[in-house]
Amino acid sequence: MEKKTIGIRFAGFGGQGIIRSGIIVGRAVSIYDNKFATMNQSFGPEARGGACSSELVISDSKVLYPYVTVSDVLVVMSQEGYDKFEPELSEEGMLLIDEDLVKPKPPRGKIKIFSIPATKLAEELGNRIVANVVMLGFFTSLTKIVSVEAMRKAIPESVPSRFVELNLKAFDCGYEYSRKQKC
């Protein structure tokens, strides 16, 4: 994607690491790729299971408006997140879904849909909790918004130390899946 300012939304439910996904990408682009970024998050009162989202505005220059009004990229890990945020996706946007959890309608306009069995791949790695990071590898490979190097630096700073190795494996799995359609 070669747009100067890009709006990204991650959507799913509490416990899937949706907010952390926004934190990781925001940290990677702002600290390691030297871009400007803002992040906002929303979630229900439930600790786990309620709808949540994180949104990022990434730009080569200062961000003038910190909220996503129309997403250029929508990364969805729940049907509820898809139903709520798909209407806000640009008609020329990218939709990335966890194919076992989201059943999309036929795309509007020129929307490109990419799917990955992120939760299944995370389970194969030993813990479904890293499904969001599998999705981040997939996102990084497809969008080219953030560099692989920046993501590999931001992940260890954003997850508990005992899970760093697993998260890096999850990232690599998602990245390779987009390139080879397998891990």
Low-confidence stretches: none
CATH fold name: Pyruvate-ferredoxin Oxidoreductase, domain 3
Query: In order across it, which strands form the biggest sheet?
Result: 2-3-1-4-5-6
What's the end-to-end separation, in Å? 24 Å
- For the report, how would you describe the main beta sheet? 6 strands, mixed
| CATH architecture identity | 3-Layer(aba) Sandwich
User: Taking all residues together, what is the mean pLDDT?
Assistant: 94
Give the overall form: globular
Count of spatially separate domains: 1
The radius of gyration computed from the alpha-carbon positions, rounded to a whole number of angstroms, is 15 Å
Helix/strand order, N-terminal first:
EHEEEHEEHHHH
Secondary-structure content class:
alpha/beta
CATH class designation: Alpha Beta
Helix percent reads: 25-40%
Q: What proportion strand?
A: 25-35%
Q: Give a count of the beta strands, DSSP E runs of length 2 or more.
A: 6
Instruction: Report the total helices.
Output: 6
Per CATH, the superfamily is: Pyruvate-ferredoxin oxidoreductase, PFOR, domain III
Give a written overview of the molecule.
The protein has 183 residues and is of the alpha/beta class. The protein is built from six helices and six strands; from the N terminus they run E-H-E-E-E-H-E-E-H-H-H-H. It has a six-stranded mixed β-sheet, sandwiched between helices. Strand 2 (36-43) and strand 3 form a beta hairpin. Helix 3 (118-125) crosses helix 6 (164-180). The longest helix has 17 residues, at 164-180. The chain starts with a strand and ends with a helix.
